[in-house]
Each structure stands twice: as C-alpha cells, then as structure tokens.
Amino acid sequence: AAQIASQSANHSADRKKRQLLIMLGKESGESAGISLGEIPRAAAEELNAIHPEEDRSLAVIADPGVKSARRSQAQGDTQRKLRSQQIEEAKGAANLTLDEQYREIAALSLKRDAAAAACEAAEKDYGALKTRYQAGLINKSEYLQGAAQYWQTKASGIAAEGELRVAVDAYGWLLKGVG
Hints:
By secondary structure, the chain is mostly helical. It has helices at 2-24, 44-48, 52-62, 64-71, 77-134, 140-175.
C-alpha cells in the first residue's frame, strides 16, 4: 500500500511538473533543467520584524481603499463630511485587515512550531522504527504503517511552514497596498 501511494505521488509530481513546463512554454524534454524547490522558511528575524503598531501607518497610506477615498472630490459641506467619513471607514478597514493578518501570522507561527516539534518527535520514532525493523523485531506491515505516519507528520510540518510563509508574504503585500 505504501509503495502504491509512493508511485501515485511520483506520478502526480511528474504530471504537475509537465503542466508547469507547458505554462512556462518549455518542451517536456527540457525538464532536466527545472527542479521544484522547497518553500523558504519564515525566518525568526522576519517574524520579529513584524510590528503591527508601527506598520499600521504604512498599511493605511498604501491601502487602495484609503487612496480612492482621498482622491474623491467633494463639493459641499455634506459631501465633504461624507468623504471624511469614507476616509475614516477606509482607514478602519485597513487597520482591521492588518490586525487580522497579524493574528493569523501569530496563530500560524504557533502551529508551525507545534508541527516542528511533532516532526522532531516523529524523526526519533522513525529512527527507532527503522532500527527495530532492521533487527527483525517488527514485520514489514508495522514498519510501513510507522513510515507512513512519519511522512504524514513531515507533510503536516511542511504544510504549516507553507501556510506561515503565505501569511507573512500577505502581510508584506498589505504594507505595499496589495491585498
């Protein structure tokens, strides 16, 4: 069962690689020069550089809703008050979006740390499992179940890292007015 799952994953990866080559306008024979890499980790320095209180003004200035409200024209007192209200609402929305993104980063950082701890424990268990299997203390079925559990835990860790990377990048884009 584990072999079939491995073959299926390899076929899926090959299919995705061919689709990527097509999107890049490359021939399928040119795939030797293209490799799929890992998602870059969100470094501690990068996470420590996130300061929502300090970044709030940047996010408000760059927010397209705020820019649009500021560019609008107002003729009379009523329209000026409405424009002022729209600007304040846009600023509030930009602040709320930034706060939500920061909270998401904090939650995903905790999730990533928990997944990393689970991966470390799974690596130790997997090492012990390999040793027991090589010594003949467990059968192949038990070994494959343990190996599958290890790879599943490892995949969860990679997914958690990817989610955090996306959230950190989204935070950076909010500061640039893309969001």
